[in-house]
Amino acid sequence: MTARRHPALSATDPELASFVAAEETLQAETLRLIPSENYVSAAVLEASGTVLQNKYSEGYPGRRYYEGQQNIDRVEALAVERAKGLFGVDHANVQPYSGSPANLAVYLAFAEPGDTVMGMALPMGGHLTHGWGVSATGSWFRGVQYGVRADSGRIDYDAVRELALAERPKIIFCGGTALPRTIDFGAFASIAKEAGSILVADVAHIAGLIAGGAHPSPAGHVDVISTTTHKTLRGPRGAMLMCREEHAKAIDKAVFPGLQGGPHNQTTAGIAVALHEAAQPAFVTYAHAVVANAKALAAALLERGFDLVSGGTDNHLILVDLTSRGVPGKVAAKALDRAGIVVNYNTVPFDPRKPFDPSGIRLGTPSLTSRGLSVEHMPVVADWISRAVAAAGSADERTLTAIRGEVSSLLSTFPAPGLPLS
């Protein structure tokens, strides 16, 4: 089977081919609930594995440092135009290798080492690159952080404004990695304007929801939009920076030559395909289905007595606090994995436990929605999670094994996009 799916790889390196085949099987048979993961289409997979891999292309279309770029320029220009059209922005750069380098380019474009920058604290749902201490962004810049209210789990915009006016940061980041509620970009824009700050929306998690009209867009409110191209956007592992025309030169210069050499052209091609797919009516349906599934799953978990940060979700993501269950997040995540349900353990706001052994787990619905699961399946998923967490607390491996069989059985009727399995 391995040789038939990947003949050249199997002939050259059968050991590595066996690992790839095993991962294909794992992705086919398990319920992937990590909110930053998804399935790309067969077209995106094909584009990402083309001979564009062979080209080195420092510079930008029409301004390269290598010859032979006639076709590469077309590919990148196509991706740029599709990004601009889909997100309604003046300028787009599709070259960043991933989300963290994209955010680093923002710092390079607008700040000097030692400047004050502001973002959501990592334990509250923010991202490492928003000025958190263990990141280079927290070492090279003076990071100040805002959080969420203890009583609601939601951003307190009055507190954000008070901090911004007190600190006058050069850059303010809004967005994060564990935010289950809608981001008010307009409120952040008012705060940034009053504080004299550059406002950056990191929409890596919700870019697909924005493209599909299932979350408000930051376009027109912020100076820069940073995003990865996978997650809810269903593209390859890459990133984009989008901005107002006045910032285009600074952003492009920061990406190249500021931080990177030649772009990964095969990834640019995959991004172009994903943007084309996201512009289709079917993607609008998909984006709204992701949110509907998340809301239904959250409601089903609440019915089963789970504590959810902020009490639910507005997007694709659910943050579960397992404190009342007496099961640490890491223990629960590993048990769920054995049950064929893939999540990640995660800190919750004001978590008394350490980040590597936190109180919560983080769930998301992008992948299961890509497979075609709908609202009617969410009570079943919630029941699996409830049974698995209980089994984790009592070391009941028999129940975990039974759940894994049930998961595999259901998913066999919902094949995953892009997987070369019959």
From TrEMBL:
> Where, in this chain's numbering, is (6S)-5,6,7,8-tetrahydrofolate bound?
L122, G126, H127, L128, E245
Is Chloroplast there in the keyword field?
A: no
Cofactor(s) for this protein? Answer: pyridoxal 5'-phosphate
Q: Which residues carry this modification: N6-(pyridoxal phosphate)lysine?
A: K231
Q: Which InterPro entries does the protein's record reference?
A: PyrdxlP-dep_Trfase (IPR015424), PyrdxlP-dep_Trfase_major (IPR015421), PyrdxlP-dep_Trfase_small (IPR015422), Ser_HO-MeTrfase (IPR001085), Ser_HO-MeTrfase-like (IPR049943), Ser_HO-MeTrfase_PLP_BS (IPR019798), SHMT-like_dom (IPR039429)
Under which main EC class is this enzyme filed?
transferase
> Pfam families from the xrefs?
SHMT
Q: Which UniProt keywords apply?
A: Amino-acid biosynthesis, Cytoplasm, One-carbon metabolism, Pyridoxal phosphate, Transferase
EC number, as in UniProt: 2.1.2.1
List the catalytic activities from the record. (6R)-5,10-methylene-5,6,7,8-tetrahydrofolate + glycine + H2O = (6S)-5,6,7,8-tetrahydrofolate + L-serine
Q: Where in the numbering of this chain does the Serine hydroxymethyltransferase-like domain appear?
A: 9-385
**HAMAP family, per database record:** SHMT
UniProt cross-references to PANTHER family, sorted A to Z: SERINE HYDROXYMETHYLTRANSFERASE
The UniProt subunit note reads as follows: Homodimer.
Spell out the family assignment given in the record's similarity comment.
Answer: Belongs to the SHMT family.
What does the UniProt function comment say about this protein?
A: Catalyzes the reversible interconversion of serine and glycine with tetrahydrofolate (THF) serving as the one-carbon carrier. This reaction serves as the major source of one-carbon groups required for the biosynthesis of purines, thymidylate, methionine, and other important biomolecules. Also exhibits THF-independent aldolase activity toward beta-hydroxyamino acids, producing glycine and aldehydes, via a retro-aldol mechanism.
Question: Which protein are we looking at?
Answer: Serine hydroxymethyltransferase
